[in-house]
Design a protein that fits this description.
- This protein is an alpha/beta fold and 145 residues long.
- The protein has one domain: Dehydroquinase, class II (Rossmann fold, 3-Layer(aba) Sandwich).
- Helices cover 39% and strands 18% of the residues.
- The protein contains five helices and five strands, in the order E-H-H-E-H-E-H-E-E-H.
- A five-stranded parallel beta sheet has the order 2-1-3-4-5, sandwiched between helices.
- Strand 3, helix 4 and strand 4 form a beta-alpha-beta unit.
- Helix 2 packs parallel to helix 5 and helix 3 runs parallel beside helix 4.
- The longest helix has 15 residues.
- It is globular, with a radius of gyration of 14 Å.
- Bound molecules: 1,3,4-trihydroxy-5-OXO-cyclohexanecarboxylic acid.
- The site of 1,3,4-trihydroxy-5-OXO-cyclohexanecarboxylic acid (DQA) has 10 residues, from loops.
């Protein structure tokens, strides 16, 4: 099984960025944690981060051609603005889990909209960076069912 973990804008700033919302782990540490979890679960994982919407669209499309079995995505602020990401996930038909580190439901009104959610099999919100691992487990265990 091959999983793609995508992170959107400003998630490269984890560890520096608003620790009260996002914790103290750096992006590099989160990637290490994801890779260790993938190894423990016996799956292949590839992690990518970009501050640019088009890169995320390209990588979702590539996931189809490279035959990924599942996508975990934290679209960052593009969650609340991007119909292009919604369309990309719909285009590829790959099981996709949306994840947010912070408790978005307790934050500003503009964070209450998620365009991508309509195309996702699940959303994991507010479980900190552990949410990435939960999203992976959901795809791995769902894939086996
Ligand atoms: C986020 C929540 C978004 O509202 C925000 O724009 C982010 C991170 C999260 O992981 O909690 O960049 O997706």
């Amino acid at each position: 099984m091959k999983l793609l973990v995508l992170n959107g804008p400003n998630l490269n700033m984890l560890g520096i960025r608003e620790p009260a919302h996002y914790g103290k782990q750096t992006y590099g540490q989160v990637v290490e944690m994801i890779e260790a979890h993938a190894a423990a679960r016996g799956v292949e994982v590839h992690c990518l981060q970009s501050n640019h919407e088009g890169d995320l669209v390209d990588w979702i499309q590539d996931a189809y051609f490279k035959e990924y079995d599942g996508i975990v995505i934290n679209p960052g602020a593009y969650t609340h603005t991007s119909i292009a990401l919604l369309d990309a996930v719909k285009s590829v038909g790959i099981p996709t889990v949306e994840i947010h580190i912070s408790k978005v439901q307790e934050r500003e009104d503009f964070r209450q909209i998620s365009y991508i959610r309509a195309a996702c099999v699940a959303a994991i919100i507010g479980h900190g960076t552990q949410g990435y691992l939960e999203a992976m487990d959901l795809l791995i265990d769902g894939g086996k069912a």
